[in-house]
Amino acid sequence: MFGFFRRRRTPQLEAQWLVVGLGNPGAKYTATRHNVGYMAVDELAGELAPVPGIKALVQVRDGVAYARSTTYMNTTGEAVGPLAKELGVTPERIIVVHDELDLPAGKVRVKLGGNENGHNGLKSITEHLGTRDYLRVRMGIGRPPQGMAVPDWVLSPIDGDISGQVALAAKAVQLIVSEGLAKAQNVIHATR
User: Name one GO biological process term (predicted).
Assistant: First the structure.
C-alpha cells in the first residue's frame, strides 16, 4: 500500500519522522500568520539546508527530519511528497505544523487526518501523499475581522508576541515523536 514511500537510501537523509512547517518563503512573509508553521520548525531545528532535487530546506537530528518547503504555501506538496519518498517516511509519521483559521489566536491543537478546511497547503500535501492521514499540529490564528478577506488576513503581520504559541507547537511535535499522539493531545489540549 505504501510502496511510494520506500526508502531510496540517501545516507545524509536517514529519519523515522518528518516534521514540516508550512509557510511562504521570502522576507516579506516572515512575520505573517501564514508562516507560524515555519516559526515552530525553526524553534525545533535551527539552521536548515537545501537537499538536491527536493524543494525544501531540511535538518535531520535524532531520527527526525525537520523541513520547510521552498515553494509557496499552495504548492507545499511538491516538497513534502518527494521528501517523504526520499526518507521512506509513511504518512502516519509525517507531522505538518500549520496555521488554523478555525482556532482562536494562540491556541494549539493536535490531530490525525481530517479535512483540509480550505487550507491550500494541506490540500497540496494531501494530493501529493495520496492521503489525509498525516498528523497535524494546528496553530490558531483566528478568523479575519469582518470585511477583511482571508488571503489578506493570513498574509498580514502577526499582532503581538506569539513565542508562547510557537513553543507550545514545538512541544506538541516533541511529544508526538517521543510519546505518541494521545499523550500529545492530553498535554497540549489541557493548556489554556
Answer: rescue of stalled ribosome
| pLDDT tens column, 27-52 | 999 999 999 999 999 999 989 999 89
Q: Which helix (H) or strand (E) holds 59?
A: strand 54-61
Domains and CATH numbers, the chain: 17-190 (3.40.50.1470)
34 given a catalytic annotation:
yes
The neighbouring-strand residues paired with 157 are 32
Minimal CA–CA distance to 104: which of 54, 66, 159?
Answer: 159
The C-alpha atoms of residue 38 and residue 31 are separated, in whole angstroms, by 10
User: 74 labelled as ligand-binding?
Assistant: yes
Active-site residue among 34, 98, 119, 128? 34
d(CA 164, CA 189) in angstroms, rounded, equals 14
State yes or no: 120 annotated in a binding site.
Answer: yes
Question: What does the alpha-carbon distance between residue 75 and residue 117 come to, in Å, rounded to a whole number?
Answer: 16
